[in-house]
Structures are given as C-alpha cells and as structure tokens.
Amino acid sequence: MANPKPEELIRINHVPPKQAWMDTRPDFRPGMFCYASKAKSLEYVGMPNPRQWSVKDEDWHLPENWQEIFIEGLRERVDKYRSFRLFLDICVRCGACADKCHFYIGGGDPKNMPVLRAELLRSVYRKYCTTSGRIMGKIAGARELTIDVLKEIWYYAYQCTECRRCSLFCPYGIDTAEITILARELLNLLGLNIDWIAGPVANCYRTGNHLGLQPHTIKDSFDMFIDDLETITGIKVSPTFNRKGAEILVVIPSGSMFADPGTFTTMGELLLFHELGLDYTWSTFASEGGDFGFFTTNEMAKRLHSKIYAEAKRLKVKWILGGECGHMWRVWHQYHNTWFGPVDYLEEPVSPITGTRFENAKSNKTVHITEFTADLIKNGKLNLDPKRNDNLIVTYHDSCNTSRGMGLLEEPRFIINNVCNNFYEMPENTIREQTFCCGSGSGLNASENMEQRLRGGLPRANAVRHVHKKYGVNMLACICAIDRAVLPPLMDYWVPGVAVTGVHEMVGNALIMKGERKRTTNLRGEPLPGMEGEEDV
Amino acid sequence: MGLLFSFFAVAILGVIAFVGVRSIHLHYFFGVIIPYLAFAVFIVGIAFRVLKWARVPVPFRIPTTAGQEKSFPWIKSSKIDNPFTSFGVIIRMALEVLVFRSLFRNTKMELRDGPQFTYGSTKWLWMAGLAFHWTFLVILTRHLRLFFEPVPFFVEILETLDGFFQVGAPVLYITDLIFLGAVTFLFLRRVIIPQVRYISLASDYFPLFLIGAIGTTGVLMRYFLKTDVVGIKELMMGLITFNPVIPAGIGTIFYIHLFLVSALFAYFPMSKLMHMAGVFMSPTRNLANNNRAALHANPWNYPVKAHTYEEYEEEFRDKMKSVGLPVEKE
Amino acid sequence: MYNGGKILLGLIIFISLVTAPFWLSGKQATAKPDPKIDTPEILKLPESDRQCVESKAYMKKEHMKMLNEWRDWVVRDGVTVYTSTTGKQYTMSLQNTCMKCHSNKKNFCDECHNYAAVSPYCWTCHLEPKEKGL
Fold this sequence. Notes:
The structure holds three protein chains of three kinds. By secondary structure, chain B is mostly helical. Chain B has helices spanning 2-22, 27-55, 86-99, 101-104, 124-142, 153-162, 174-192, 194-199, 202-225, 229-240, 252-267, 275-278, 309-322; strands at 107-112, 116-121. Chain B has a two-stranded antiparallel ribbon. In chain C, 46% of the residues lie in helices and 4% in strands. Chain C contains six helices and two strands; from the N terminus they run H-H-H-H-E-E-H-H. The interface between A and B is large, with 119 and 98 residues.
C-alpha cells in the first residue's frame, strides 16, 4: 500500500472523539499494525498456541479457554512484578504522560496516550483482580474481557515501543513499558505475537542472531569488510572468531553485520580494535546483542541471552564488550546481572589499553563500547583526524534505552566531539533523557506497518528537521542498530538529505592508523572532504 | 457519566448526614460510630494494601534514568536524577515526594506551522498539584488543635503563619483559599482539557468532589455558619480517649463535614488515593542505577531452557569447518 | 527483592503518626474549659440583669465577629452605641463594656481560647487587663 504524503500525514487531530473510549472499537487500518506471527516460529521455540491466524480476520482462532488463560496469566503476573501491580493500582489519570508519547503526537489516536493504553489492561485488571471493580463494574472503570477488548489490547500493545518517555514525566514513575511488556507476555500465552518479533526470536534461538545468519555467512560478511577496509586503508585487519583464551568477547547486534549503514559501524570497530592490537574475539554463536525475546516474554528474553555468558565462559574470556545497540543495552544493563549473576567466572573489566577499571560494570562484566572508546580518547590513546568527517554536519539521537534505561548520555557525545568538527544538538526537550523514539523500536520495525512507523517517528524527525534547517545538519548519529535500520527511511520521508551513521563509523573514519595509506574515501567509499576526484588512486 | 455519578454520590453523602442528624438525631452514630469505623478502615486498609504490594517482589532493577550515569570520574554524573547510591535514591525520592520532581519536567506539545512540534515547559499542573497537596497537609496539621490538649507548639505556629494577614474574625487562613482554588483548578482542567476529560473515570471525579465538599463545609463552618469549636474539641478528645461524648449545641454543618471526612478516610484505601503510599514503592524511582555494579536478586528467577553451543555446533559443524572456524568436536 | 524491612518501617512510622493523638493525649485530654462568670462586677448585678449584650448561645458562636464589627464601627465609622436585639443600648468598647464585667481574662477568655488554640489579636492594641490577686 502506498504511504500517505507527508503533507497529509502531518494533519493530525489530537482532540479525542465524543464517544467514550470503552465504547470505541479499534479500527485495524492497514499500515498501522504488524502481521500475525507464523505457527512455525512459535513452534520452534515452544511458545503456546502456535497457529496460522490473521489480524484482519474476525476469528483469531483462539483456544477455547482463552479468557481463563489470559486472566490466570494476569493474576500470576501481578503477583510476580511489584511494578505491574503498583502501576495498575495507583495511576490518578492526571494526563501528564498524554502528549509525551511519539505515537500519540504523530497519530492523535487517544488510545495511544500512555495513560489510556494502560487503562485498556487496567480495566480488565479491575474487573478480575479488584473487589471494587468486580462489584461496581463500569463505574469503577472495570470491564469484561471480551474478544473486542482482547483485540484492542493486542492492537495497542504493538503500538508502544517501550521507550519509557512517559515514565520520565509520571509523578509516580508509572512505566508504560512495564505494562506493554507484560501485556505482550499475556498475549503470547494465546499465541498472539507479531511475525516481525516471532520470526527473529526463532532465528535467534537457532543461529544465535535475529537475522538467522549462519556461522559461515557471518565469516563471509566479515571477509567482505576486511577486503573493503584493505581497499580503503591499505591495512588488512584480522579478526578472530570463536577463539578461546581471548581477553575480550565482543558482541554486537547482528543488524550491524549485515545491512548498511550498520555495517560501516562494524567496519569502524574492526579498524579500532586492530589499531589497538586488542586481544579479542567475535562469536558466531553469541552473534546477537539484541534480544527480541525481550519483546515477547521475560522467559524468552532470558533464553535468548543465555548464550552470551555461556560463550564467554566457554571461550574463557575475561570480560564482554558490547556494541552499539539500544534495547540490547537495556537488557544487558538492567536484566543480565539478575538473570545470570553472579558472573564470577569472568573478571572485573579493565581496559587493556588504558588500565582504566570499569567500576560501574564490575559485577556483570559488560562494558559499552562508547564507554570503552571514550576512555581511550580521554587517555590520548587514539590518533584522530576529525577533519576527515568535515563533510558531515552531525546531530545525535539518544536511543530510548541507553538514555532512560541506563543514562549513557555523555560518552557518545564526547566521542562525537572528538571525531568530527560540526556537531549540533537538537532542541533540549527532544534529547538526552527526554529523547524521542525512532518510532520503530521494540520489534515494530516491520514494513507492513510503515504508516505507524512514520507517525511514531515524526517527533524525532521533526526535531532533526529543525537542526537540518537551522544548521544544515546532514548526518544523524546514533548508537542503536534498530535506529540505523529505521531512521534512513524516516529521514527520507520527513527530512530528505539527512543520512544516518553509527558513532563508531565516524571513529573509523577519523582514526589515523599506523601504516595506513593516504585515505581518499570514507568507509562508505565516498570521497573524503578535499579528496574529491582522487577516488581512482 | 462518571462526573454526574460522582457529583450525586457526594451530594447524597451530604444529605444522609444532614437528614441523619437534623431529622433523626443520630448524633452518636454520625459523631462516634462512623468516625471510628472510617478511621479503622483507613488504617487497616492502607496497611493491607501496602503489605499486599510488599508481598510482591521487585524482580528487576528498572530505574528510569533521568540523567548521566556514573561511569568515569571525568564525566559528571547526575547523582540525583540517575542515582548510583542509596543516598542519591533518598534525595531523588525526597524531591519526588516533597516537590513532585517528575511533574516539574512537564511539557506541553504544540503543533505549529512549519509544520513544527514544540514542547514548551508547562508548570500549571505541577503548581496546582503542589498547592493542593501542601495546603491539604497544612490544613490537616492545623486540625490537630482539636486532638491535643495542650496543643503542640508547631500547630500554633502553623496557625499563626496561616492567619498572617489577620483578615476578619475568625482570622482567614490563606491555605483555605489556596486549597479550594487548587481543587477547583484540578477539577476544571479535568473537564475542560479534552484529553483529560476523555480519560477521566468516576473514580477521578469522586475524590475531587468529596475533597471539594469537605473543604467547602469546613469553610462554611468556620467563617459563615459558625459552630461551637469548644464542643467539637470535646467530642474529638472524647473519641481519642475512647470516652466518647456528644456535647450539645454543635451545628449540623459539623456533622456533615465529619461524615464527608469519614467517607474520604474509608474510601482512601480502595482508591487511586493510595498513590500516597505507592509513590514510595515505585521501582522506576526508588532503585539505584547500579545494575552492572551490584547484583539485584530476583526471588523467582528460574533456570530456562536455552539453545546450547553444543546443539549449535552440532547443526552447523560442517559449515563452520568449511570456513575455518574452530570447533569443539572434530 | 522485597525491601520488606523498609516498607514495614515506613508503615509503622505512618501509623504512629496518624494515631499519635490516641497515644500521646496526656492527662489533660479530658479536661474541659470552664469559663468563669463570677467576677465581683457580675455578682453585684441583680440576678435578672446578669445578661450579656446578646444571648449566651449567640455570644458563644459570634462574639469574635461582633468584636470585629464593633472595632470597625467605632474606629472607622464613629458609631459608638450598639443596640442589641432586646433594644438595650451599650457603648461599644472592649475595655469599658466587655471587660468591665468579664474582668477575669485568665479565667474567662483564655479558658476556651487556649483549649481551642485560638490567639485573638485584641491585646496587640488594647491594654491587657491587670488582674488582682495573681
């Protein structure tokens, strides 16, 4: 289906309809939802109720006792997660979160106000888990779990990217991501996942990565990088795979091994590690830092990430270095230690180059690559020529997860300021902890829901547009693989003329390496500033 | 619907107390039995709800980080908005509870020509919320004069400050004005802002009307209808010494006020008003962001079935060998 | 993780605070104010004339408002005579009318005012009466 034109899409009505929300059924409009999960994806990982079904069909082929399953699941989870029970109990509907959600801002659907998205499930919770709701019914904001209610919960659970921007503004810290995460768990009990999540999950379980890259394919991919890098720099990097006894295991999102512009980030990392002479290894099995299991169930998330520490243990490395990826770092930072700790078979991470101890990672032994590189630059270990990035006028997009689930704000900026000369921030209410989502996170980066993605990404794009017009920004830097996959089409649609890069791609370009030949092109094969016409060297 | 329902519910409560005292003379019922019951429900209900939350574990450490993490000494970290230590968490919670830190961040989205979105700072909700909660606390504290003999010094100081402008007799309390103003604002924004009206339930209007009615009856009693304060204090002191008496000559308005307060106390534990206790227990606010430095244990963490390297190698061994990747089993 | 100890501590603090009146109310909790109307000036009057400017019930509720009005009428409007509902006329004066009979501020005014924690600002302008025998 063709997407509406930007001029049409921007005509957004934020005023809710007259009819009460409980009486309004969801309208499954093409472009606004993802396709249903396939039976084989669920079967492969043993998720319940695998079957073929279609969102547009009246009959979703639910199991006979679907209500019972859902409600039992709900009761079980409000007894397992204090966050969940508390957030269902204490919302006062002040509305502070309403205009903080990118989907509401870009779409105007009132049920995308975080408060109301949560009320969809909260109303069911009241009906089946609270006395007042059971007795007072609708007047207490409670309602029966009907098939329409279930479909509505499904529709909006997959219109939340779990970015947590609303939770920043909530006076009680109510986190819609928690609600969405658990709503999706409940839906998964009924086999109601989306294809774009269930597929990668199955792939990841089997091959170690979402894209389903098999070991030889990964090796081939890297061989291509090695060739390209030799052409550009004259240096032949020699990464190792599945090597036992290396000091560091490097894990990155698989998207950066396969698709532009993420691949350029990986190439930048290869150059950096080579220049440092780092004793590290890649793993074809722990070949995915991201975790679409996190968008499925807590258990699935843990099942997919078990391999990372398992590989670190098998390869007898000292610690783990994680690449540029958003939700990967929410999981690594906030969940890994709890799932897999204590990680006493690894050592407290120390940079072999600078000797810096990463105190903040001493327990779970994972270091973010921008922490690693910022430390290198601060200690003067890198020879950088930011002029090589002079063709770029850069702004920086904070990923939701690294900003609101971690607080990684200054490290990437410090690096960017050292590898390029033109850096401009977007308006302050759209960056750092207040950053806007790309609109496609949490597994919603499919293609069939493009209108939803363009709407969700509008607030981010609009802020980029501001600096594009004001400063001529032509490059949007980020540290997230989903960002690198989804921001290019978003920019093409809303802000043509702005490309997308990982931070370590710019590092790779600026890095002056020992024994390199005079570089004429950047990692993308485009001429460096001042080198136009010399590509034929 | 929620609005009218709540309005009439509160109105009916008022009428019940009026008729009960004025016509049926149930002074003892409305002056002694109901307050005792309501207070018991309040205490037991709150304890019950809090313990119910406490029984549920916090499986994961999920603070919403609102500033720079602690990493290197040369990067200034945000010690309060992204606390690494318990001390930081205490300050963060104190700011949250005492001055509504998160609400202070509030912005208002506008779509302007360009087209351009802007997100200007907006402090109205924060200001009204703060005014409402703080004046409520001051008013409650002032009421302690009816529950202590002798009256504690801080209550007298509070009264003197509150009546600083010495307008009229009895002296006008500034908090009474601010309180009613804030309640009115919170109500008006709920009905005027379309989005907020859309999300509002009966359980949002009911406490607003109830609290508004309590404030109004209180003001009527103090400034206009007048009643016998000495008698009221005798009643209250009787209650707290479990020696209840009903002094004659206390106006009906007092019993209406007391009944509405009792209704609020009894309603409190089963309502959204529990956010008073809940805010302290919110896992996105009351945890330090030190997940990679300290282990957070989940009591129900359980082993999961994962795909092992051995299974992986088993499936891909030939392909691995063909490109020279090391394998465990030849 | 539960943090049970902290929650319990918080709960105990909360319950202690809201129930404080019950367990902190001291010996004087049941003491009632007892304003005395046995001053020599009142006792001098014949039984039938022992009557304030208005009824006792009215005075109990409204005396503060009345004094406030008297002050305004005398100081701002120059009116000095008050006609009561019974038609009797009085000079509107705190010191010369009210305190003439109620010369016992300690045992009359202060009794209730202290009990209800009211601190009227009469005596910031007026001279506080010096009571004999104290």
